Every structure is written in C-alpha cells, then in structure tokens.
Amino acid sequence: MTATTQDPRTALPGVDLERVTFKQAKGSRCALCGTPLTADRSLGTFTADTGLLTDPTELWACARPCQ
Fold first, then answer.
1. Pairing status of strand 40-46 against strand 57-62
2. Which residue, among 36, 25, 20, 34, has the nearest Cα to 58 in the 3D structure?
3. In whole angstroms, what is the distance from residue 19 CA to residue 63 CA?
4. Which of 27, 32, 41, 53 could form a disulfide with 60 if both were Cys (CB 3.0 to 4.6 A apart)?
C-alpha cells in the first residue's frame, strides 16, 4: 500500500499523539504548545492507536511557529 497525501500521518515531532487533549483535537488549542488559538495553521491529518485521535483528525497550531 502506498501513502497518498490524504492518508493520516501517525507521527508529529515533539507531540505524543496519544496524549492530545480534547481542546487540541477540536482545534481550539495549539496541538504543539497548548495555547488558545486566535490565528492558526493546519499541521495535517493525524491518527493514533489510542486516545482521541483513533479517527483521522486534522490538528491545528499557532499561526506563527511556536516551536
């Protein structure tokens, strides 16, 4: 099976996808630093074996790189 651009990724450097909070999964807090989002950028779609991201979920981060 070859990956396509629409396949969810299973790793995000610096983020434990299995410990993403509800607010991070829903896009109201940055997936990288946890601060409330007022301006944002998509990190892409991710999935994990356990936690809130067992279904493919688009994660968002601060518009300006926070890390």
1. antiparallel
2. 25
3. 22
4. 27
Q: Which residue type does 66 have?
A: C
CA–CA distance, 10 with 6 (Å, rounded to integer) = 12
What's the predicted TM-score (pTM) here? 0.77
Span 20-65, pLDDT tens digits: 999 999 999 999 999 999 999 999 999 999 999 999 999 999 998 8
Q: In 10 A of CB 23, how many CB atoms?
A: 14
* Identity of the residue numbered 35: T
The pair of three-digit structure tokens given for residue 55, joined into one six-digit string: 């279904």
Quick: pLDDT tens for 8-18: 999 999 899 99
3-class SS of residue 62 = strand
